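Good morning,

Both structures are done.
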Amino acid sequence: MVFQTLVVVSAALAAFQPDCPPKVPLTDGNIVFDIMWPTGAVEFGTAQVFRAFGMLEVNGIVYRAPDCFAVEQRQKGTVVYCPAPMPAPGGLMVSRKIYRPYGRGYIRYYDRIDNPTSSEVTAIVTFRGQLAMPYPVFRQGNGWVFIDSASVSADVPYVGLFYHRGLQYMSDDRPVVFTYDPQGMIAITYIVRMRPFSSIAILNFLEQTFSPLTADFRDGTATPQRIPSVSVAQPQSDLPSIIKEPDLDELSPEERSILWNIFIDTDVNMDGRVNVLDLITVRNDLGKTPQSASNPRCDVNFDFIINLFDLIMVRNDIGWPF
């Protein structure tokens, strides 16, 4: 009797599962991103370099779209998303939007978490995935990593991942932990304290490229150049430009304003824009250190003193990103 009841319940649950395409292919030349339903992770990728890469987990629950993905061709790229959010522990609601710009070798994950409750909730958010094998780390910096999957073959692309920019000296307030184990599993963990009735969004950029990072990037260390065996000429890695100016195309002003892990440092008051309010905030803390300031983000250039240089940097960015 119990067994029959379980069978009936299982059949009923299965009946409510939407009949969705198993994946959405986002291809452009030699670079392939196949977006799996319902997780939104990348299956295989170019030359099968990935193993379900881009899984999202919130408070121990893996994101699974409750309905089919919608695919929209926008002005600057393709957007894949599920219109309905997924419930998560603590009363949270989770949604994700995946963007592939035309003619570029990366996708952008926009993972949004809403706290519609009247209580503060801590969200432990993990973005993870596995590479086909434990390729060596080629280059790594603050908030990004570049992996030499191309060491196997010239037909296998490098993998780039950009996951954090801003608040370099406030890691205690916005913890971001990156791990890469010997089996090729990458995980980035974000610990987010969410106020009542608030929303945050986390960006992760995933790149595939046949070109190594250039010698003048970041620390200036020379890197060997590799000639790809594919017939189509490949552009240089997009990673340096993404780190310098993260791609926020096809995001609304409201979606930009709740970014948690990637934003411009001159947005001192973190309202999603750089304007005269940021200038006033810096002016009020002139002459102080980050420790003594009312807002430690006023030390925009991270030289441990708030002075005219910080004011100039904010002034130069007024109007960003609108």
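Second structure follows.
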Amino acid sequence: MRASLRFELNEAWIVFRLNEQPIPTEQDGDLDFLALMDAASRFILGVTPVAVGPSGPTPLEAKRLLRDGKTCAACSPRTLMVPTDLVAPCVIDEAERLGIELRRVEAEQLVAFIGEAQQGFRERFGGRDAGQV
């Protein structure tokens, strides 16, 4: 997927992890922050913290994330793009339940869309830059 690829508003959404490394918390353990973005506008439609684990977000977290996106956008997309390295079976199941076409995409191909959001999260909450070891 190339950055020059054009989408109509709410045609395609992207679900992705904002953080590069888990965020440790005292109360809830390690968390990832999943974001839902409209591909055309690059507007963040929703963010939800999820416990780091082998199965990704729970069914409730997946429903909440997609529901928040639909509430914000007033409609559902035709396509949901999910990075291949993101473990999110419940998000995939919920998208399919809602009749949203799923498209697994290599994370590197999404950087043009999600890179600025991830950079902003990194600047606000810390983390290593892509160039650091």
